[in-house]
Amino acid sequence: MMNFINKLSKTTIASSMVAASVLGVSNISHASGSGAGPGENAQGQQGQDDAIAFGNTKNPKNVIFMVGDGMGPSFNTAYRYYKNQPGAKKMNPTAFDKYLKGTNRTYPNDPKENVTDSAAGGTAFATGHKTYNGAISVDNNKKPLKSVLEQAKEQGKSTGLVTTAELTDATPAVYAAHVDSRDKKDEIAQQFYNDKINGQHKVDVMLGGGSKYFGKENGHLDKKFKKDGYDLVNNKTQLLNSQSDKVLGTFSEKDMPLQIDAPSKNPLLVDMEQSALSKLDKNKKGFFLMVEGASIDKAAHPNDVTGVMSEMSGFEKAFQNSIDYAKTNKDTLVIATADHSTGGMTIAKGKDYKWDPEAIHKMKHSGMYMTKEIASGKDPEKVINEGYGINFPSKQMDKVKQAAKDLRKLQKEGKDEKDPKVAAATTKLQNAIQKPINDASHTGWTTNGHTGEDVNTYAYGPGSSKFKGNMENTQSAKNIFDFFKNDVASNQNQQ
């Protein structure tokens, strides 16, 4: 019976691959295993395709670890409201809901703070050790801590980092660098190139923002990677045409634009993830891939609900794509969680028991985008009219104009964005821009920083039961280290 299942599994996978190549699509999935879409059972029992796909695999050969940076539980709930029809008496699940396993405790090991940042949070689920805020995979004595990506590379697996932030930002950095401060981004990029395992660069596929840290100002690291066989890409077309199994893709100078604001030449998170999978899955020994929806956090810091929902949508697409991949690659584990929550978002505020995502759906641009445009000198009224899809009160427009005027005065004095006065003035402008959509949608916020609640963990595939219940955020890494230690190639890959 098991031989039959193995043969059927291989036949199904091979057929899917042939169909995908004929149709010119790169995403391989079972039609009956596309996850929890609208109208599907949120509790969905494993279907027949799942049973065939997994056979008797105990330890995953491949791990896709997904980080919704800043994605606290209120974000997951709000996104469910956002996807459903207004006034729905029964809400259809999101792609995440079916795979909820448990929650993570996010606190760091910091002498002054008990709410984590992304560096300490990332270090915890990359290395299995809690540390101080700002640390990039070093302990409290600033000694290096081994990451699961490094373990994967030691075992001959392929590795990848995909993010909508800079590749040198905290979450991707913790997997392949060891520095005492997340702010040392030039050094992080240099370690990506200089630090090797078994004579090879640690990361085979690097896709995200942050081109400035790989270019002329930091020793032309991009050209050095190219010399070592990496494709260099900077737009969606180049990414699709990339032939090498190793690639460095930087699609913006710093963080990538939010999905709602991005130019069509930019790949979305799901595009980057799919490209990474197409390269990494050629390795018969397996792979480790980290995929970060970084801009959920980037939008939550300025309390930009439009940006947050845009990025939740992008992260959900990437999550569903990873589930589809796992359903046709039986030894793949998918985990999705968050490092912390951001902004203290509440679903409803004030006296009304109401949250209105329809107002958010009408928005044409994020508040972050409009703030940046106005800060660069563009006419506030024109930017607001082009970006808002709901009424913007005239009195509030006056406040936006005044905030823009105050910011420009500081800019004319030669102060840059790092100056505290400029930062405060920019925040004032952002808040003035954001108020009408937060009011119209009844979205509340408590902070421009992080918050300390437990975050949700979602998982699918062999080993997913290890993520059940309330756990320390370090347990994710401990589980992955254990899986890789006990990794046994499936029958399919022993042929």
From TrEMBL:
<dbReference type="InterPro" id="IPR018299">
    <property type="entry name" value="Alkaline_phosphatase_AS"/>
</dbReference>
<feature type="compositionally biased region" description="Low complexity">
    <location>
        <begin position="42"/>
        <end position="51"/>
    </location>
</feature>
<protein>
    <submittedName>
        <fullName>Alkaline phosphatase III</fullName>
    </submittedName>
</protein>
<keyword id="KW-0732">Signal</keyword>
<comment type="similarity">
    <text>Belongs to the alkaline phosphatase family.</text>
</comment>
<feature type="region of interest" description="Disordered">
    <location>
        <begin position="32"/>
        <end position="55"/>
    </location>
</feature>
<dbReference type="InterPro" id="IPR001952">
    <property type="entry name" value="Alkaline_phosphatase"/>
</dbReference>
<keyword id="KW-0597">Phosphoprotein</keyword>
<keyword id="KW-0479">Metal-binding</keyword>
<keyword id="KW-0378">Hydrolase</keyword>
<dbReference type="Pfam" id="PF00245">
    <property type="entry name" value="Alk_phosphatase"/>
</dbReference>
<keyword id="KW-0460">Magnesium</keyword>
<feature type="signal peptide">
    <location>
        <begin position="1"/>
        <end position="31"/>
    </location>
</feature>
<keyword id="KW-0862">Zinc</keyword>
<dbReference type="InterPro" id="IPR017850">
    <property type="entry name" value="Alkaline_phosphatase_core_sf"/>
</dbReference>
